[in-house]
Amino acid sequence: MPSEGRCWETLQALRSSDKGRLCYHRDWLLRGEDVLEECMSLPKLSSYSGWVVDHVLPHMQENPPPSETSTSARSASALDQPAFVPTSPVGDLGFSSASSATPNGTKDKHESAHTEPLVLQSSRGIRVEGCIRMYELVHKMKGAEGLRQWQEEQERKVQALSEMASEQLKRFDERKELKHHKEFQDLREVMEKSSREALGQQEKLKAEHRHRAKILNLKLREAEQQRLKQVEQERLRREEGQVRLRSLYALQEEVLHLSQQLDASDQHRDLLRGDLSAFQTRGNQLCGLISGIIRATSENGFPTAEDQAVAERALQEMRDILGNLQQEITRAREDKRRQDEEEARLKRQESQMQQGPEAHKESTAPSQGPGGKQIEDLQVKVQDSTMQWYQQLQDASKQCVLAFEGLTNSKDSQAKRIKMDLQKAATIPVSQISTIAGSKLKEIFDKIHSLLSGKPVQSGGRSVSVTLNPQGLDFVQYKLAEKFVKQGEEEVASHHEAAFPIAVVASGIWELHPRVGDLILAHLHKKCPYSVPFYPAFKEGMALEDYQKMLGYQVKDSKVEQQDNFLKRMSGMIRLYAAIIQLRWPYGNRQETHPHGLNHGWRWLAQILNMEPLSDVTATLLFDFLEVCGNALMKQYQVQFWKVILLIKEDYFPRIEAITSSGQMGSFIRLKQFLEKCLQHKEIPVPKGFLTSAFWRS
């Protein structure tokens, strides 16, 4: 192509020019600014010239090469004369590099090699210059090798740095990923913590809600209980008001009746010396007072206790007025009768003086010989007064049951809980009575007394009081009496010594709370009719099981208990009764009499001896009663007691033996041996387990 030919021609022309014939060092860039400094600075020897002169030239002079020895003279002369030689490109290169400047600092112009010859130095200078050039070449080669090594080292460093940078980048990525993972983990933990806190707050709110709901329910329950209590109090107030109103009507009726009797006393006006108008006026005032109370009550509602008390005082005053009037009438009648008798006596004396004395017959009553003895058959039925007493106790027990019927039949859970707590508070302390220390027995007594007195006591970890329910006191009294008798039926029957600590607590409670004592007797008479003593009679049309229950037997599933077990229970209850009548609570009021003392035991013994004996029962009960209570009766009644013992031995033993079969002689023999031993020693021994003064000091 024409353009390519022109390019080659241009290149050839440039090569042929003066500048194209110049030699260029390819490593001049490595020198940097030194190249320019060499052009501008004065010519000077290399820094290695001194070393070459000092070390290389002396060595070469001492050992010249053989080719140069022959020409040494010639060379020596040549050193002083210049020579002209043609220069080659290499020489140009060496010369150009070793070109010098004039002393005045001006620079010679280079001429072409084929036109201008160069002035050669002497051989010594050439050798020095050659050595310098060789050293420079060696140094340049070393520098090139060092540069290559340096480049390789730099490449290795760059490679190492690249690898290190790559590893650092990996580490950075790993740290970044770890940081992200940690941040994510922290975020998740924060979220979980927030979730837990939210759940905890929610549970706390739920708990607070349940607590508030519970409190609200309790308040509602308390309000309902308060309302029911108010309703119950209102009902009781109305019932009491109605009772008081009926009582007022009864009082008014009685006052009116007494007023009629007071008016009827006018027929005795002639007997009385005084005027009856004062009595009648006061009676009318009292009638008007009660009528005014009833009228005020009908207007205001129900009468108060004060109104009833005023009416009762008015009735009592009316009775006193009528009683005083009747006493006046009675005295007047007596005076009239004595006056009439005196007049009659005077008339008889006057008639006797007129008619003379007459003989009078005397009526004499039949007499009984000193050796005579009237023997009457023993009774089968109990005395009427004892039967009335027995019936009164049973009626009182039934009335007590009716009084707390609302509590026992209540469906309310609160009432049921109160009933259970009261029952435990009444029965558990009685179950804990045993032959323990006196101080422990006093704690039990105080707890029972506090419960009956309306004070709160601890039972099952809760505070219990009879005031929690209006029927609570009746319920506790009934259950307490029932538990005392049951302890005699079970505990005393198995351990005879237990009769005394149970009896002393029962006696103390009886003294402070008489109603409990009446309920104890009612339960005792119902379970053991022989403690009255009372032998129930079989009535026509009565079921056999009912009759056996009346006799005291336990009947379960139409099966009657064994005779031994029956006698054991009866023995336990009689022993408890015998212990109660002789013991008193030592910390009570000694000035007051025993509420059911030894006189009742003496009555029981006399009445049971006046009744026909029962096979196996009478002998057992007499032995248990006399073994427990015989010593106390002996000290109380002394000679009379021993007369009764002789009566039993001489008259009652034959009757018991006559009705006892051969298989039931054990109780009879035990009683007979006991009384014979007592008569022999003339003393009834103190019963085993009797509480002494040392017991109460323990």
From TrEMBL:
- Report which residue ranges the record marks as coiled coil: 206-233
Mention one GO molecular function.
identical protein binding
Q: Does the keyword Nucleus apply?
A: yes
Residue ranges with Basic and acidic residues bias:
330-350
Q: Which UniProt keywords apply?
A: Coiled coil, Cytoplasm, mRNA transport, Nuclear pore complex, Nucleus, Protein transport, Translocation, Transport
Q: Where is the composition biased (Low complexity)?
A: 68-78
Q: Name one GO biological process term.
A: poly(A)+ mRNA export from nucleus
Q: Which Pfam families match?
A: GLE1
Asked if the keyword Zinc belongs to this entry, the reply reads: no
Q: What does this protein do?
A: Required for the export of mRNAs containing poly(A) tails from the nucleus into the cytoplasm. May be involved in the terminal step of the mRNA transport through the nuclear pore complex (NPC).
Q: Which PANTHER family match?
A: GLE-1-RELATED, MRNA EXPORT FACTOR GLE1
The protein here is known as: mRNA export factor GLE1
Query: Could you tell me which species this protein originates from?
Result: Catagonus wagneri
* Gene from which this protein is expressed: GLE1
